[in-house]
Amino acid sequence: MQNDLPLRGKTVLLTGTSKTTAIVDDIAALGGHAVIAPLIETCERMDNDDAKLLNSALQFDWIIFTSQNAVDAFANKMERYQLSAENFQSKIASIGTKTTTALENLGFQVSFMPSIFSADIFVKEFPSIAGDHPSCLFIRGEKAKSTLKDGLPFNLKEWTVYETVERQDQTTAIINCIHHNEDVTVIFASPSAVDVYAKSVAVHVGWQATRVAAIGHITEAALEQYGATVDIMPSVYTMQAVIEELMKVGDKS
């Protein structure tokens, strides 16, 4: 029976935005207990120039999305100003399966995804297929790093369409969960969530109280900067891949 329920006895803390809740049923089906405790949330950034910026977006050779949050905010603007994917002649570049799925659900066809879902790999692989002196627009969040702008060998325009807000309302619940459960894994999907956890949770319980899982080597690096040991970091940067790795590990002593 244990083999049928490889997550039996394990508690999995999900610290990303509320969009990460899709994995909850999978965790439960494997015998685990998922706790949704978002340490960050995102919201669309509204601007008086949105209509003009959206119209300008129609003119680019490439539009680049690196997160599902960016797609969702962009979709809100498209709906508000009555545009659809059919209005865009641009090629679409995407990082991540969730991002790509969200784009495809809007009717976009994704022309490029990097072999590893990370911005620093994107800047190495994208130029070879982007064409000669392409005009590129990066649809970003306010906390996006300058990796694309600094790393691409051609001019990149940026449009910030969403903001990331820290949530402190979940920290007490997280601390209590860690204190009352023996085998806890905390999954981090972004450096932003790591920052909140480090400031509001780790200072009370330490990093050794749980198993630590990271999605992406950028998130892994953020954890290590705070002194955490990353126990799980799959080569495929998805939540599902983390769960698959967690299924292989024994109980946390």
TrEMBL record:
Transmembrane segments: none annotated. InterPro entries: 4pyrrol_syn_uPrphyn_synt_sf, 4pyrrol_synth_uPrphyn_synth, UROS/Hem4. The keyword Cytoplasm does not apply. Gene3D superfamilies: 3.40.50.10090. It catalyses: hydroxymethylbilane = uroporphyrinogen III + H2O. Keywords: Lyase, Porphyrin biosynthesis. SUPFAM superfamilies: HemD-like. Catalyzes cyclization of the linear tetrapyrrole, hydroxymethylbilane, to the macrocyclic uroporphyrinogen III. The keyword Lyase applies. This is Uroporphyrinogen-III synthase.
